[in-house]
Structures are given as C-alpha cells and as structure tokens.
Amino acid sequence: MASLLFFSAVWFFQGRHWLIDTDYEKLYELNVSVFGYNSAAAYSLIYILPFLLLLNLLVRHNSAEITTRFDKRSSLYHLFVYQSIQLAISYAGIQCCVNILWTTLFFDQPLLHQASFYQATFYNAIAFILFYLITAFCFKITETITKSTALSMGITVLLFATSYFIEKIGISMTHWSLYQDVGVMELLFNGGVVGINYLRLVVIAIITSLLASMLFERKDFIT
C-alpha cells in the first residue's frame, strides 16, 4: 500500500503539467521527458532510496535468526539474491502498474494502443527489474566494505545520483550510460529495438553480483 501511494504521488507530481487536453505528445512527455514518471531523473534520484529502504526492511539475510540456519556464506548470499529478485520484480511491477492505472484514466484507449503504451510499459518493467537488481548488488558491495547499512545506503544513492548528473552535464567519457539502457520506453516510443539494452543490463547485473558475492563470501560469520 505504501508503495502504491508513493508511486501515485510521484505520478501526479511529475505529470501535473500534461493531464489537460491529453494527446500523444503529452503521453510521451509524461513518460520519458526530463521530469517524466519514467525519466532518468526519476529512477536515479527518486526511486532508489525507497527501494533500498524496502531492501533492508524485507530482505532479512543479515538477521541472526536467518544467519544461523546456514553453514556457508555462499548460501546466505544466494538467499540475498533470491529475495532481491523478488523485491525488484514487485517494486518494478507496482511502479509500472501505477503508471498504467492513472494513464488509462487520463488518456484515451485508441491513443494508448496507437503509441503501443502497454507493450512499452511491459518492456520498461523488465529494464527496471534489472536496474533495481544492479542497485541491490551495488548496495551489498558497499555494505560489505563499509560494514554499515546506513553509510552504504548513502553511498549507493550518491553513486547513482552522481552518475546521473555527470551524464546530464555532458562530461562522461563515452556515449553510453546506464540510464540510456534503463529508459527503454523512450526508445520504444521512437520505434527502436531494446535487445542490446537488456544485454548490457544483464551483463552489468552479473558483474556486480559476482563482485558482491566475492566480497561477501570472503568474510567469516565471526567477523
């Protein structure tokens, strides 16, 4: 319920300028503009912190009760991955369902079908799931290094926020950024293909997962 209210509040705040005399251009702006609901600014600056809070609330791999059930840290890390996948799917699913719910109330169905809105939202949800998994693995890396949940949350949020601002001011060293791959909805609205975007996100998720696993499994339960 809290997630529904949160995403609904963001949707109306982000979309308040485009809900009068709705047309294709406003549907596009609502979803993929700089300040849109599915914009890079939204998922790099707004959605990450609530996700990390839920990660620490719902993914209980660090509790003493859970820890004592396993004799290997690899098993404990696999539990973290499994629970993170569940949370990422749920979080991204709620985020996209809220978008569908309110969009269908303000925009006509022929327009939504013409824009392939539902298909674009589904494909966007897959990218969001991979993005949140990468976020979870980056958090686990920093938490393992710093041994502080609060500090690692702050570092993770700062990492993604900084990378977003670096991209926006144009000082990145390449023409690629993580947020270009996550924002597949803009690509789909423009008739693009998203396969390579998914591939890069999967590769990044695997690399961050392996790094988090190596760091996590090196530590003893005692330490």
Describe the protein's topology:
Elements (H helix, E strand, L loop, with lengths): L1 H14 L8 H9 L7 H7 L1 H11 L5 H4 L5 H34 L2 H6 L2 H30 L2 H20 L9 H5 L1 H6 L5 H23 L6
Structural class estimated from helices and strands: mainly alpha
Q: Which stretches of 5+ consecutive residues score pLDDT under 50?
A: none
Q: What is the mean predicted local confidence, pLDDT?
A: 83
DSSP helix fraction: over 70%
Please, how many helices? Answer: 12
Molecular structure report:
The mean pLDDT is 83. Helices cover 76% and strands 0% of the residues. The termini are far apart. The radius of gyration is 19 Å and the shape is elongated. With 223 residues, it is mainly α.
Descriptive key words:
single chain; 223 residues; mainly alpha; 12 helices; 76% helix
